[in-house]
Design goal:
The complex is a heterodimer of chains A (349) and B (302). Chain A is of the alpha/beta class. Chain A has 16 helices and 13 strands. Chain B has 302 residues and is mainly α. The chains are: A alpha/beta (349), B mainly alpha (302).
């Protein structure tokens, strides 16, 4: 099943009874504060342009009130945009009629919610078949598929429990199983792990990454946690006050924060687990020295391997085993240490 | 010395319409209504006839069936509903004492009437409640109507009902249903409106149609509140049988009415307690049934 990219083009959302009336002024530069002060309307999203990679994990990160949950709800149009396009496979979701939209939601998307949003009066199996039941898939067939995914998310044996009898982590596994059973190309995860304990959260991230390796769905993941964003995201967009402040891969953002706001975020990140060796390697001068390290290895792992081997020099090899660059232990350590300010970060990059 | 001595008369005596005007207006309305009823009485009677026949049939069925059969059927229903031996035994005892004091037949008449009225009120109330929850405009119209239904003294709306339908079971039933249906409507509306927005959003996100949302999410999640509405409706229709006896509904209420008129202290209380016993049987059974439907919400993960 080939998944497609999701293209979001100049998307605006103004909350309030007459949002559409102010769209031109907002496009001409009316600020969020002025819009609220003068007209009592709230600017939810402004000029969002994101291309979400097909078959990859797109993370949208931001603090509360940044508009990230509003943004994800535009992809399956739980919220109507004020202006702009959301394109999937060449079709603008925002222009679909009611019937097409319902079909799109039934067959193309599945969603996981922060507060799980399970049906309390239904057992785990009955919750998991929900999407298929809505589609009208025969009961025997949908139950078979539901049981498969319940097993995959590690809930075997709990099929006939009610959500109330499960812990938060287990309830979210049901939420994930419900979404996966739908067999949709797009998986929307709205702060899916934010309500979970840190350990269970890491656990659930692993579940998602393992499944994604084989499923290759287009995943849109909302979070307020940068570590989570860096761990999961093939691409990350950072939202602030309804505007995209920066987008790119995790490494690009960590190495090259666009402003002080993002620098402040990035400061606490364990850079050794985000930056890859090929990002900081120097061109080879002469023959490759020291031990070989595969490209794609993160700095922390490279440093560990070199320290264990007692070597201060190494060279990076590509997937085919050809030497690609030189690496020294002190460069690795310098790259792992957080620069203190935004200016310094830019100089370092 | 009163203040009014110094004030113009207009400020002291409320400028009411003159008695002649009021009398003329009242006469026009009353005569008009009476004329309307008179000219359509045959159509109204024909329309009400099937209901009358049904109510008579049901009452006869309850009264003429041998008492052991009625008792056994009742106990089976109570047990299936409540799954509680205590409630079932309590029911048996209550019915035994009702029979012992010679009130069996009257109790059966009351039971038949209450059952029909409750079923009617539920069938009428739930769809109206759903519509109210769905459309704010319906709510805006229905709410004041319910306020009137609940606060208007029942004797007042008995006047036009009796004028239209005469004396008998049908007007009695209409009076009881008017009195008993508001909580059903209100609680259905409230229950649906209180359904968790997040669960509704999830239902939307999976592409549910309006009907699928109602059937899979709204009704099941509103069920505890709807059950409370059913319970209230039962209680209120039982409370109303005494008033209904004034327009010719028989049973325990009629005995109470007779006791009031003649100051029969013992008869009044005996019949009153019989009504209470029936109310408690209905209440415990429906509550236990409702609780059983909500079994899933009791086991909380610790």
């Amino acid at each position: 099943m080939a998944s497609h990219a999701i293209e979001i083009k100049s998307l605006y959302k103004i909350f309030g009874p007459r949002g559409a009336d102010y769209i031109d002024q907002v496009k001409a530069g009316l600020s969020k504060t002025d819009l609220n002060a003068q007209y009592g309307h709230v600017l939810g999203l402004q000029d969002i342009n994101i291309s979400m990679p097909a078959g990859g994990v797109m993370v949208v990160m931001g603090l509360s009130g940044s508009g990230k949950s509003t943004l994800i709800r535009h992809i399956n149009r739980l919220i109507e945009p004020t202006s702009g396009e959301v394109l999937y496979d060449g079709v603008d979701v925002c222009r679909m009629n009611e019937r097409d939209l319902r079909d799109f939601r039934r067959h193309k998307t599945a969603m996981v919610f922060q507060k799980f949003a399970l049906l309390p009066h239904r057992t785990v199996v009955e919750n998991t078949v929900y999407g298929l039941e809505i589609q009208g898939v025969p009961a025997a067939e949908s139950e078979k598929r539901a049981r498969y995914w319940i097993e995959r998310v590690g809930l075997s044996g709990f099929e006939h429990h009610y959500p109330n009898q499960l812990s938060g982590g287990m309830q979210q596994r049901v939420g994930l199983a419900r979404a996966l059973t739908n067999d949709a190309e797009i998986l929307l995860m709205d702060e899916a792990y934010s309500a979970l304990d840190p350990l269970i959260r890491v656990d659930m991230q692993t579940v998602l990454l393992d499944l994604q390796k084989e499923l290759k769905k287009t995943v849109v993941f909302i979070t307020h946690d940068l570590d989570e964003a860096l761990r999961l995201g093939d691409k990350i967009a950072i939202l602030r006050d309804g505007r995209v402040v920066q987008q790119g891969t995790g490494q690009e953002i960590v190495l090259n924060p666009a402003d002080d706001y993002i620098t402040a975020f990035v400061k606490e990140v364990n850079r050794g687990r985000v930056i890859n060796v090929e990002t900081i390697m120097k061109p080879l001068s002469g023959n490759p020295e020291g031990m070989p390290i595969e490209s794609g290895t993160v700095l922390e792992a490279a440093a560990r391997a070199m320290t264990a081997a007692g070597q201060s020099n190494a060279h990076v090899v590509d997937a085919a085993g050809r030497p690609a660059g030189a690496l020294a232990l002190d460069t690795i350590i310098a790259a792992m240490v957080t620069p203190t300010s935004h200016d310094e970060a830019q100089r370092a990059a | 010395m009163a203040l009014c001595d110094y004030l113009p008369a207009l400020l002291c005596k409320f400028p009411a319409l003159s008695d002649t005007t009021i009398r003329a207006g009242r006469k026009t309305i009353d005569d008009g209504f009476r004329g309307f009823v008179r000219s359509y009485s045959s159509i109204i009677d024909a329309a009400v006839q099937p209901l009358q026949v049904f109510l008579n049939y049901l009452e006869r069925l309850f009264v003429t069936s041998p008492w052991p059969i009625i008792l056994i059927v009742m106990l089976v229903i109570v047990y299936l509903g409540s799954r509680s031996l205590r409630v079932t035994i309590g029911t048996a005892l209550a019915m035994y004492f009702i029979g012992l004091f010679g009130l069996w037949n009257d109790a059966m008449v009351t039971l038949a009437m209450t059952t029909v009225c409750t079923i009617f009120a539920i069938l009428l109330g739930i769809p109206i409640g759903i519509l109210m929850a769905r459309f704010d405009r319906v709510q805006a119209v229905v709410n004041p109507v319910l306020d009137v239904m609940q606060t208007m003294p029942s004797f007042v709306y008995l006047i036009p009902v009796v004028m239209i339908f005469g004396i008998g079971k049908v007007p009695g039933m209409i009076a009881v249903v008017i009195y008993a249906v508001p909580p059903m409507i209100r609680l259905t509306n409230l229950g649906i409106r209180l359904v968790d927005k997040e669960v509704l959003e999830a239902a939307d996100a999976f592409g549910s149609s309006g009907w699928q949302k109602l059937k899979n999410v709204q009704i099941p999640l509103a069920l505890p509140t709807i059950m409370a509405g059913i319970n209230q409706t039962i209680m209120m229709s039982l409370a109303m049988v005494v008033v209904a006896s004034m327009v010719g509904v028989g049973g325990l209420g009629k005995n109470v009415l007779g006791a009031i008129n003649n100051q029969f202290f013992t008869v009044g209380f005996l019949n009153g307690f019989a009504l209470v016993a029936i109310a408690i049987i209905f209440d415990r059974t429906s509550q236990a049934f409702g609780k059983r439907l909500q079994k899933h919400s009791e086991v909380i993960h610790g």
